[in-house]
């Protein structure tokens, strides 16, 4: 069965007709030609398909397009309007935080959302294990352990983590 949906992708409203089983990932890539989110595992385990869905990071391979009619979606491409790179994208380049680049868009989108979550005081397993309990609701200090924990849903087959974490740390310190 086909259903008509409207999604706002990287600032542009897009109306399309999709089968009810179509994931956001497939709608973005196959129907809209947005190849920023990648199809890695197609099971929500690698994070290559990470997008911002209504401001929160999500694995687009696990989200059905029909369930997100009217949603606001931002991909890594949408973080760089008019060719002006997002500060996180600049940090990834400066730190050479990629090798093959396949996971990079998902890593960057996830890192941008993670910084927002930490600023909002959202705890993680590392935060909760800290001496102060991390329960004060204030911004979370992002050290390497905290960043690794918060980015654990994004895998890199090339193991560029040694450069990914410092790239995120640079922006987190600003």
From TrEMBL:
Protein origin, superkingdom: Bacteria
Domain 2Fe-2S ferredoxin-type, residue spans: 3-79
Pfam families named in the record: Fer2 (PF00111), Fer2_2 (PF01799)
Keyword annotations from UniProtKB, A to Z: Iron, Metal-binding, Oxidoreductase
InterPro entries per record: 2Fe-2S-bd (IPR002888), 2Fe-2S-bd_dom_sf (IPR036884), 2Fe-2S_ferredoxin-like_sf (IPR036010), 2Fe-2S_ferredoxin-type (IPR001041), 2Fe2S_fd_BS (IPR006058), Aldehyde_Oxdr_Iron-Sulfur (IPR052914), Beta-grasp_dom_sf (IPR012675)
PANTHER family: OXIDOREDUCTASE WITH IRON-SULFUR SUBUNIT, OXIDOREDUCTASE, IRON-SULPHUR BINDING SUBUNIT-RELATED-RELATED
Name of this chain's protein: 2Fe-2S iron-sulfur cluster-binding protein
Organism per entry: Plantactinospora sonchi
